[in-house]
Amino acid sequence: MIIGVPKEIKNNENRVALTPAGAKELVKRGHTVYVQHTAGEGSGFPDEAYAEAGATILPTIEATYEIAEMIMKVKEPIEPEYKLIKEDQLLFTYFHFASYEPLTKAMVESKAVCLAYETVEKADRSLPLLIPMSEVAGRMAVQKGANYLEKPLQGRGILLGGVPGVLPAKVLILGGGIVGTQAAWMAAGLGADVTIMDVSLPRMRYLADVMPANVKTMMSNEYNIRKMIKNHDLIIGAVLIPGAKAPHLITRDMLKEMQPGTVLVDVAVDQGGCIETCKPTTHQDPTFIIDDVVHYCVANMPGAVPYTSTLALTNATLPYAIQLAEKGWKKAAQDNPDLVPGLNIINGDIVYQAVAEAFDLDYTPVVKYLAD
Question: Which residues belong to any copy of the Alanine dehydrogenase/pyridine nucleotide transhydrogenase N-terminal domain (predicted)?
Fold first, then answer.
């Protein structure tokens, strides 16, 4: 198969979809890998490293899309890329379709095959290609939140871990999945007073067993959320419904109940956000303030630590990329059930139900394309 790795053009996105080591694994199996000039530079991987691994460097994004049968990316295509995508071309990347209708409609019109990292799902319901970036984002949420609690950045002016004789900051985490768990570990390690809210009692029992003493669990419901936001300094939204928009757990009216300088970090913003007032921001302009509450809503948080993120992502995606390259998307999905829910759009049909429902569009069961 011919695989193309374009340079990411989303604002301040420095990750790349494939490391030189990943390129070498594909090349030695007889596949052809084309990498756009400087695609890996932001992650610390120069063109020379890809060339040594057997990849061919192409000068432009247009040339990369034109030649490739499978495009490997990190972030969803943005508008300048729409016209470059070809019918039947396989796109293997994060899409988060349910949060952005223009992207969904553009990919339908392209008649490409869109296989989304974020909805590839194992039999145990885990999301193997979302986990590594969720781990990074969960840890970064606390790192960024601690920073924006500083007074010069219009936060409350509170040190996350406190000092002897001074209480630590209170951190509230909405969601006890991968993001929430990693955020809790990070905040607890810095000495904060942490509460995780979730709707699953089995999950909270697990977290209560493994977390240190400064992490508590609480059932997530509107009454409890309204009670907790009044005295918490950093609130992290870590809610995920695979492939669908996140529910709004914090609404516009709740901001007036928070202390001035409270910091909100919505890690779910690339899936619509679980905080009603959050809208996607960039690393270049990451925050805004409503009712004296600081909102940090960067949609590609792991892009700020691209070396770590690129290695973590390739570790997870490469086995699937090899299967797709060896067998083609249809046979790979027939042989590996993990890939079936990853298929979101095929040749103009939306085959992932939550995406179709998000915009009231027609839904086609994926079995139509996988039947022999």
Answer: 4-137
Domain with CATH 3.40.50.720 in the chain: 2-127+305-370, 135-304
The domain over range 2-127+305-370 is classified in CATH as 3.40.50.2300: no
Per the annotation, the verdict on 270 as an active-site residue is yes
Residue count of the chain: 372
Q: Which two tokens stand for residue 243?
A: 């492939």
The band of 10, judged by pLDDT with boundaries at 50, 70 and 90, is confident
Q: Which string of DSSP letters, residue by residue, matches 259-313?
A: PTT-EEEEGGGGGT-SBTT---B-SSS-EEEETTEEEE-BTTGGGGSHHHHHHHH
Question: Does the pLDDT of residue 174 top 90, yes or no?
Answer: yes
Determine the pLDDT at residue 271: 78
Please check whether the domain covering 135-304 is classified as CATH 3.20.20.70: no
CA–CA gap between residue 193 and residue 234 (Å, rounded): 10
Distance separating alpha carbons of residues 275 and 291, to the nearest angstrom: 14
- What is the distance, to the nearest Å, from the Cα of residue 362 to the centroid of all Cα atoms in its chain? 26
Task: Please tell me which residue in 193, 198, 270, 338 is annotated as part of the active site.
Answer: 270
Name the residue among 128, 125, 110 with its Cα closest to residue 345.
110
pLDDT value for 267: 94
Q: Is 248 part of the annotated catalytic residue set?
A: no
Mode of pairing for the β-strands spanning 349-350 and 343-346: antiparallel
pLDDT score of 268 more than 90: no
**Average pLDDT rounded to a whole number, residues 23-33:** 98
Q: How many whole angstroms separate alpha carbon 91 and alpha carbon 223?
A: 43
pLDDT for the residue 243 = 66
What is the DSSP secondary-structure string of 161-173? T-BTTBPPPEEEE
Instruction: Choose, from 31, 96, 232, 248, the residue flagged as catalytic.
Output: 96
Evaluate if residue 38 carries a pLDDT over 90: yes
Report yes or no: 198 and 175 within 8 Å, Cβ to Cβ: yes
| Residue keyed to tokens 């979101």 | 344
Whole-model pTM above 0.85? yes
> Which of 108, 126, 216, 211 lies closest to 172, judged by CA?
216
Res 372: pLDDT:
64
How many Cβ atoms sit within 10 Å of the Cβ of residue 309?
25
